[in-house]
Amino acid sequence: MAIIGIDLGTTNSLACVCQDGQIKLVPNALGQTLTPSVISIDENGDICVGAVAKERLVTHPSDTAASFKRYMGTEKTYMLAGRSFTPQELSSFVLRQLKEDAEHFLGEEVTEAVISVPAYFNDHQRYATREAGRLAGMRVERLVNEPSAAALAASRISRSGEGSYLIFDLGGGTLDVSVVDFFENVIEIIAVSGDNHLGGNDFDETIAHRFCEAVGIMYEELKENERASLLRMSERCKKELTSQKESVLTFGSEERTFTLTNMLLAESCQKLFDRISQAIKNVLRDSKRTINEIDEIVLVGGSSRMPVIFLFLQTFLGKSPCMIGSPDEIVAAGVGTYAGIKERKQEIRDLVLTDICPFTLGTNIVNHSDHERPIMSPIIERNSILPSSKTGYYTNAYDGQAHISIGVFQGESYYCEENVRLGNIEMDILPVRRGEAQIEVRFTYDINGILEVEVTDRYQNRTERVVVTCKTLRLSEQELKQRLQELNAYKLAPSGGIRTRLVLERGERLFAQLSGEERKEIAEVLQRIEESMREQNDQLIANRLREAEAIFDRLDDWKP
Ligand code: ADP
Ligand code: MG
Predict the structure, then answer these.
(1) Hey, which residues are catalytic here?
(2) d(CA 155, CA 294)
């Protein structure tokens, strides 16, 4: 009966456990700690999660989904193999796979998970994340903000101890920069900022453009599959630059080459760096800190491995960031640490994770000059420390008003319509003269970012209370049970023979992307593997797989 920590990422997810007081990242069936957050339904109707599913993005796009974390807590649905799934249902498959991997690793059942979420995740997104956990058959009592988890891991792993941290998290598609204080066992997020559409993908695209320029082709004119392979190649080239001085890309059969160096990459990514510096300026301004008041700049997220990022931050901030182990594993290590603390209950009191509410929560008030456009009346201000409970006092708008409609809004805009509507409470009030009603609206925002709203009419002493739910976005207990049953009908694809599966899927993907002689070569490779499988000769299978991987590596070099 173990508790695991999970970093449920947009691009990659990881599970982490605390075993005999040691923090351990859970390897998946392929022996890797990172599992791509990609889901695919295969021919048997089974769910593939991770690397295998990622290959199927190209070959079976209509049965495969990625980046669904972006749409957590929204009404977007995905059609996969002719069935509709919500983002939290897709996430639940990732969680189920991680749970299974952890159970295999630990040799015991996992019943509970602590899951990390971006600090700016709103109520809906947090709720959806918990729902995903429950749909994966786990209890989720606690969500931990990603920067808090990173600060916790950084303080423990690097033994830098307590202090003020600047957490710089550059992932696959998002940038999150946060200032986090860790003093006297209290971890407190001071401010958050970032860019929701800036990540490793943008660097891949920049490299792809640069490459096209260098060899004289038009990026825009590439076919979709050509573009996909070029981006794949660009990503590989980007990764090579973390350990090599340069990376050489060969173009076509004429052997024209394009050499990318970190210098050239830095030059090409100027626009991206401008956006990064903006996010850092914002977070320092909001936290009212100067860089000198920051004790440690912590590099988090796979894209933070790039030397150009390190150099940029060093120059821009005049201070060296610190890289602790693998930046893409830090958040997971932090949630795992927290899960471990939670498991040994007695210690949990020692560590307090205080979170802030990254946006303002408020209600609507009448706009006397334009009744159609109610004005936002803030109740809990942005960057308030959680848990937070605040009351706003309101009255009726006209004589004899018998009904009020209290909207619950989130956002920083003056007009409610420009903010996000989280919910609504309708309530009958005692009809009295204008201005005489006494309506109290109490917002209680708990440590998990779940909002409870209480409206009281003092005259009647009547209270309406709701945990803010938006009916279309949330499942009732009954619906949840039913959905759980339906989802349980889907089996995770077996993890035995997963390497073979991955090679076969990759071969199919390359077959779809390439043509002519190369297709013939791929077909032969695939047939040789299938042959060895028929013979059930393990040694032969292993050899053929290795052979195939070498050939596929070569074919993955993009040639237009
Ligand atoms: P997320 O938090 O978005 O789920 P990660 O933190 O795992 O994602 O980061 C994924 C990104 O990190 C991808 O864009 C990937 O290309 C990039 N990445 C991973 N390893 C390296 C590396 N060695 N060098 C440069 N970028 C890398
Ligand atoms: Mg991440």
Answers:
(1) 7, 69, 146, 169
(2) 14
What is each CA distance from 539 to 352, 422, 522, 536, in whole angstroms?
53, 59, 21, 9
Q: Are 271 and 203 in contact (CB under 8 A)?
A: no
Entry pTM:
0.82
Q: How many Å lie between the centroid of ligand 2 and the Cα of residue 178? A: 13
- For 337-351, 366-380, 395-409, 525-539, which range has the lowest pLDDT when averaged over its residues? 337-351
Mutate to test the pocket of ligand 1, among 11, 299, 309 (most ligand atoms within 8 A of CB): 11
Per-residue DSSP letter, 318? T
Distance CA 163, CA 400 (A): 57
Could you tell me the distance, in angstroms and rounded to a whole number, from the CA of residue 482 to the centre of ligand 2? 31
Whole-angstrom distance, CA of residue 81 vs CA of residue 43: 9
Ligand 1 pocket residue status of 358, Cβ below 6 Å: no
The tokens describing 529, both together, are 């593997």
Please tell me the number of the ligand nearest to residue 332's CA. 2
Which phi and psi angles does 444 have, rounded to 5°?
Answer: -120, 120
Following CA atoms 6, 7, 9, 14 in sequence, which dihedral angle do they give, to the nearest 10 degrees? Answer: -70
Could you tell me the distance, in angstroms and rounded to a whole number, from the CA of residue 108 to the centre of ligand 1? 31
Q: Residue 258: which residues within 8 A CB-CB, separation 6 or more? A: 211, 214, 215, 248, 249, 251
Tell me how far apart the alpha carbons of residues 473 and 475 are, in angstroms, rounded to a whole number: 7
> For residue range 92-131, what is the model confidence (pLDDT) as tens digits?
999 999 999 999 999 999 999 999 999 888 778 888 999 9
Which uninterrupted H or E stretch holds 554?
helix 538-555
Q: Cβ neighbours of residue 315 under 8 Å, at least 6 residues apart? A: none
Dihedral sign for Cα 318, 322, 323, 328, please. Answer: negative
145-159, 271-285, 375-389 — which is least confidently predicted? Answer: 375-389
Ligand 1 in reach of 234 Cβ (< 6 A)? no
Could you tell me if 155 and 161 are in contact, meaning their C-beta atoms sit under 8 angstroms apart? yes
